[in-house]
Design brief:
The protein has helices spanning about 5-20, 25-45, 50-70, 75-90, 100-115, 120-130, 140-150. By secondary structure, the chain is mainly α. The mean pLDDT is about 85.
Amino acid sequence: MAEATVRQQLEDDLKTAMRAGDTVSRDAIRYILSAVKNAEIDARGTASEADPVAALRRLGKQLTDAIEQYEAAGRQELADREAAQLAVLKRYLPTELSDDELNALVTEAIAETGAAGPKDMGRVMPVAMQRVAGRADGRRISAAVKNALAQ
């Protein structure tokens, strides 16, 4: 998705949620939209363009971490609120890779780097991360690389 497309889609969906009286989606989209706008502001004055998908991924990671912390603290109502926001956020992210697709990309990365065992994980991870290009969480990629190198 292009930057304008993601932002425009968020703004359109915000209007729709407001008209429908969907307060959960409305609040989540406002939160997501502010993260995208902040990424645009941060990118000003630099040579790089704002990457809204990267901003959404960072926000997704923050929400996932918050959910884990709230659940560990026994604050289920707060964890549920964050989970609802995460569900809305996932609508705007590229689709995640399946386990089979991820394993195939990891296998290619291992073959490309010539890795032979778990000690070569540091060589494989950058290549695997580049091939996955944000379509899977870093934890999933790391686990897939560990499993593949352990065999």
